[in-house]
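Dear colleagues,

For the upcoming journal club I promised to circulate an example of a predicted protein-ligand complex. I picked one with NAP because it came up in last month's discussion. The inputs are reproduced below in full, followed by the predicted structure.
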Amino acid sequence: MNRQILLKSRPVGMPTEDNFEITETPEPEIKKEGEVILEARVISVDPYLRGRMNDAKSYVPPFQIDEPISGGMVAKVLDSNDPDLQAGDFVLGRLPWIERQTAKTEGLTKVDDSLAPLGYYLGILGMPGLTAYFGLLDIGRPEAGETVVVSGGAGAVGSVVGQIAKIKGCHVVGIAGSDEKVRYMIDELHFDQGINYHKTSEMKQTLDVVCPYGVDVYFDNVGGEISDAVLSFMNIGARIIICGQIALYNATQQPVGPRIQPTLLTRRALMQGFLVGDYASRYEEGTHTLSKWLKQGKLTYKQTVVQGFENLPETFLGLFKGENIGKYLVEI
Ligand SMILES: NC(=O)c1ccc[n+]([C@@H]2O[C@H](COP(=O)([O-])OP(=O)(O)OC[C@H]3O[C@@H](n4cnc5c(N)ncnc54)[C@H](OP(=O)(O)O)[C@@H]3O)[C@@H](O)[C@H]2O)c1
C-alpha cells in the first residue's frame, strides 16, 4: 500500500487533523530519462507550510485542495534512470508527502548518511541552519560583547542562531516556551540566559534583568507580544531580523501592535525581513561553515523525531504547541 497526505480543506485559524486526508495512490513507475523512484525516509515539518495552506499570494504558491502537501524530504533511491544516481543513494528535495513516488532528478541533491544523520540535511545542514547562518551574520552582524536575543530559541533555527552568536562572543538570551527548553538552551547550547515566556507575566521586567545593557541584535522567530516586549530594549544601531512570526500564523484578524517606527527612528535601528531562499547562491558557503563548526564541536544539534508517515499531520500541528526541541521530523 502506497500512501499520500492531501490538503483536504483550508484551515481557518489553528489547523486540525480534519484539514488533512491520507489516501492510497498507485505504486510509482519510471517513464522517462532523468527520473528516479524514491522512498521517503525523513520528512520535515516546518512552520511555513501553514502559510501555504491559505489561498493567498505569497513568496511560494498555495497548496491546492486534494493535492499532496509538499516540503523538505530525504528519500532513498529505489530505482534510477539517471546515471548520476544509483539505487541505495539518498537525496534531499522539496517533495510531495507520498511514501513512494517518481521524481525528476533535477532539483534533488545527493546526501551522504555516513557524514551526518539524514535528518541533519533538513535541519542544521539544511534550510533551518542556513536561515540561522545568513539571517544572523548578514543582517544581524553580531559583534563580540553585544547582546543578542533570539525568540523560538530552542527550535530548529533559534538553537543555531544562539550558538553562532556565542561563537561570535556575544551575550545570548534565548526565549522559549518551557522550563525544559530553557535548561536546554543554557546547559547544552550554552546561552547566557533563558526565558520561559509562559511563566513570565512581566516580560519587560525580566528582559530588563537579563539584558542589562539593552539589546543589539534581535532574531525574531515568533512575533506577537514577545517581540513587542523585546523591541522596547533595542540599543542605538540595533539590528532586528524578521525571520518568522509563528505567533501570528493562525491569526484570523490583522493583529494590532505597538507603532514601532518612533523606536526605530530614535534608536537608528534596522529592521529587515529575511527569506533564506534569497541566499541560494551562497548555500555552499553556509553549509561548509556549519559542517566545520559541527565537526569542531562548536555547534550541537537536537532533533525531535516521530515515527510513522501517518503521523505527519499531527506532528505538523505540534509545532504550534511547542512539542519539539530542535528540529521536528518524521521518520518513515
Ligand atoms: N524567513 C525564512 O527564510 C525562514 C526559514 C525557516 C524558518 N523560518 C521561521 O522561523 C521560525 C522558526 O522556525 P523553525 O523551523 O525553527 O521552527 P521551530 O522553532 O523548530 O518550531 C516552532 C516553535 O515555535 C514556537 N511557537 C509556536 N507557537 C508559538 C507562539 N504562539 N508564540 C511563540 N512561540 C511559538 C514553539 O516553541 P516554544 O515552545 O518555544 O513556544 C515551537 O516549538 C518560524 O516562524 C518559521 O516560520 C523562517
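Two points we might discuss: The longest strand covers residues 70-80. The pocket of NAP is lined by residues 46-48, 127-128, 131, 152, 154-158, 176-178, 181, 221-222, 224, 226, 243-247, 274-276, 319-320, 322, 324, 328 (CB under 6 Å).

See you all on Thursday,
B. R.
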